Amino acid sequence: MEIIWHDMHHRDLSAQQLYAVLALRCAVFVVEQSCPYQDVDGQDLVAENRHILGMRDDELVACARILTPADKAAPVAIGRVVVSGSARGLNLGYQLMVQTLLSCEQHWPGRSVYLSAQAHLQRFYRGLGFEACSEVYLEDAIPHIDMRK
Description:
By secondary structure, the chain is an alpha+beta fold.
C-alpha cells in the first residue's frame, strides 16, 4: 500500500482536505475513543501552522497538526496525531511522526519539539526520541503525559 505524504501550510488546504482532516479526527478522537470534546479549537487555520496528511488513493488515512512556536524560545508543538482505523497495523503512526518531525526541522530548524501524548503511547514516542517532561495527568478523562524532543 502506497501512502503519499503532504506537508501543507494551513492556507494550502482545500475545503475537501480540511473536511477530511476534521472528519478523521472526529471519528477517532470523539467517536472511537468515546471522548466528547471540542476538536475544532481555532488552531487549525492560524499563524504558520501546518498539517501532515497521509493519503492512500483518495482517502486520508493519517494526519497530524504542527503548531507555530508561541515565541523565539518556545518549542514547536505537535498534536492531533491520528491514524484511521482502516489503516492501523501498517506502521503508519511511525511514518506519520517521521514526516511530522521532518517538517518541524525544515520549518523551525533546531527547535525543540513538544507533544501531549496519551500516556499509553509513551514507549512509542520514546522510540522517536521524546522524553517525558511531566507527570501523567487527565485531559478529557484520558491519561496524558507531556513529552519533549
